[in-house]
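Need a sequence for this fold. Nothing fancy.
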């Protein structure tokens, strides 16, 4: 329980915001001030005060198997998404996923007394907790609704801004319909094994992104369109792919026991340099892009050595596979550690797939900060190019 004095939680909150600013978020004075004002610890009363202001998610509800069902999101991610949302005074805002109520309090601070915030969650226990937190912190005017978030909140529509604080595999029609023309939708959207916080702007029935950032969120209940299968008998390595992809797990089982081919890109990165842009680029051009995850036993034994064991991009085709990896190389001139990016292939087409993946790394290496544009169509219009098909949406990624 976070019993404390005013001065101690204020100091911790100030330090939290300073870390957020140092990470490049809270870019406007309004977002920074909201983060400095709203007491995060009041929304997670069962959490130690230092944990309430640490740069980590606070899990507030778990399933029987231990999986997180609801949480207060990582503060840097909260700030990043608020930057993307660009709330202005007087805006009408819809939040999908009530969480602890903390995010809704920030939104209410940003939109001010002339605006309105509605937050929706399907879990009555979650909405009760959010409503209580908002009440004791002076944000009782936020409207908390227990309902299926995929249906939005039509009674208060249209909205100038919609923000989704749960991981979504698709964009339901209600979100698009309830968003005002020119309005912004910020959603942690999952495709091809990775999740990105995408800021869309509505242009008639089309949604076009102007910001795409890496993130991770608790998945939205009832929206999961991801498939998975173990690639080995020891169940140490798992492949994840989307429902619209033609991947046969039976053909791939045991592929890691076949001879491997290593293809190196000559692209190097420093220890703190992100390389997630490779994965994003792959989703724009390679229909076979998916995710691989390896347990520590598989990594230590050399059976499967992805660059990030828990989540790395891969290409799967028939009975063949290639995945993203790296190896240590000589330090740079300042003595800093560096790694070369590459790919490891298995199966009959493993070498070809590894070369394709390595080509993607080289292309990314020439423009490491480039950000593709994500276009979401309603599915009612013919779309050309590489299409990612979802239930309600067709995605085009323009690299």
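Here you go.
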């Amino acid at each position: 329980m976070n019993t404390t004095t005013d001065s101690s939680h204020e100091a911790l909150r100030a330090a939290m915001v300073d870390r957020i600013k140092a990470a490049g978020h809270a870019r406007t004075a309004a977002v920074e001030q909201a983060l400095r004002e709203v007491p995060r610890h009041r929304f997670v009363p069962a959490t130690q005060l230092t944990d309430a202001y640490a740069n980590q998610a606070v899990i507030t509800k778990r399933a029987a198997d231990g999986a997180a069902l609801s949480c207060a999101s990582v503060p840097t991610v909260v700030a990043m998404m608020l930057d993307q949302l660009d709330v202005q005074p007087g805006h009408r805002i819809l939040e999908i996923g009530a969480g602890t109520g903390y995010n809704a309090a920030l939104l209410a601070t940003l939109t001010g007394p002339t605006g309105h915030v509605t937050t929706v969650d399907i879990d009555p226990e979650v909405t009760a907790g959010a409503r209580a937190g908002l009440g004791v912190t002076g944000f009782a005017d936020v409207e908390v609704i227990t309902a299926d978030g995929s249906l939005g909140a039509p009674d208060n529509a249209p909205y100038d801004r919609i923000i989704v604080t749960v991981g979504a595999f698709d964009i339901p029609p209600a979100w698009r319909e309830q968003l005002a023309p020119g309005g912004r939708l910020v959603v942690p959207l999952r495709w091809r094994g990775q999740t990105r916080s995408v800021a869309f702007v509505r242009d008639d029935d089309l949604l076009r992104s102007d910001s795409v950032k890496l993130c991770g969120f608790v998945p939205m209940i009832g929206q999961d369109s991801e498939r998975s299968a173990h690639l080995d008998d020891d169940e140490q390595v798992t492949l994840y792919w989307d429902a619209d992809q033609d991947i046969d797990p039976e053909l791939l089982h045991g592929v890691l026991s076949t001879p491997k081919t290593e293809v190196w890109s000559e692209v190097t990165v420093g220890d703190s340099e992100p390389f997630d842009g490779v994965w994003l680029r792959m989703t724009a051009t390679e229909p076979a892009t998916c995710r691989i995850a390896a347990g520590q036993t598989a990594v230590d034994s050399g059976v499967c050595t992805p660059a990030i064991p828990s989540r790395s991009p891969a290409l799967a085709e028939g009975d063949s596979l290639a995945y993203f990896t790296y190896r240590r190389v000589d330090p740079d001139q300042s003595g800093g550690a560096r790694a070369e990016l590459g790919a490891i292939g298995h199966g009959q087409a493993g070498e070809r797939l590894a070369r394709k993946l390595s080509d993607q790394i080289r292309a990314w290496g020439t423009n490491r900060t480039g950000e593709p544009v994500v276009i979401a169509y309603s599915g009612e219009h013919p779309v050309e190019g590489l299409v990612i098909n979802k239930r309600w949406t067709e995605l085009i990624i323009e690299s």
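For context: The chain has a mean pLDDT of 93.
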